[in-house]
Write a structure and sequence with these properties.
There is one protein chain. By secondary structure, the protein is an alpha+beta fold. It contains 9 helices and 5 strands. A hairpin with a 4-residue loop joins strand 2 and strand 3. The radius of gyration is 18 Å and the shape is globular. The termini are far apart.
């Protein structure tokens, strides 16, 4: 199972807004992103919504969701219509953002070590290790060069690929219910998450004494 803190670091990486021209180096891309978002998380002047607004609004600028969506759907991507592809990219990126919002807010002060980098053409792999008080968690970022800048399209946490994990889940839904069934399923997940977040926010409002 993918660890809670590992997913936090995953979102820390993808959620930072930066000038794309600065990222001609894959490791620099990862390191700069982690450092900048950690600073946002540590900014005590921001409330939860302000913090997430700063992070969430730029997620799509930092992650190649189309490439990730294509990998997740695998052969089903070719079978899908252009409209279905567009809707899947939109829903899947929203689903990831909503799902991991609570996890990034739980980020504390873990350290990240950058182990190695390998580049083959327009693909790169950056190996890192997250160091907590009692464990070391290997996290591998897979990146793709788009017009001279690097964007992540997969993250492998303790040997588990985020793309492969979702591919397995979603392919079963497509097999049983088709692309319409998958799109409805993801929409339902998004709606349930938003409802849960709204309920949680109401519970956190202090009662007037």
């Amino acid at each position: 199972m993918i660890r809670h803190i590992s997913l936090s670091i995953f979102i820390v990486f993808i959620a930072v807004h930066v000038n794309a021209a600065e990222f001609s180096n894959p490791t620099a891309r990862v390191k700069d992103s982690v450092d900048k978002v950690v600073n946002i998380l540590k900014d005590k002047s921001l409330d939860k919504e302000q913090r997430w607004s700063r992070i969430g609004v730029v997620i799509n600028d930092s992650f190649d969701f189309r490439s990730m969506s294509q990998s997740v759907l695998a052969t089903n991507w070719k079978k899908a219509t252009p409209e279905e592809r567009q809707r899947f990219v939109e829903f899947f990126s929203q689903y990831l953002e909503d799902t991991y919002r609570t996890k990034i807010e739980a980020y504390t002060n873990q350290k990240v070590e950058y182990i190695s980098e390998s580049i083959r053409g327009k693909r790169a792999v950056v190996e890192t290790v997250i160091i907590t008080d009692n464990s070391e968690i290997p996290v591998i970022y897979k990146l793709k060069n788009n017009d001279g800048s690097w964007y992540a399209y997969d993250v492998v946490i303790e040997g588990i690929s985020l793309v492969n994990n979702y591919r397995s889940t979603f392919s079963a839904i497509v097999k049983n219910d088709g692309m319409d069934g998958l799109l409805n399923d993801i929409q339902g997940r998004i709606q349930r998450h938003k409802a849960a977040q709204k309920e949680k926010a109401i519970e956190e409002i202090p009662e007037e004494g």
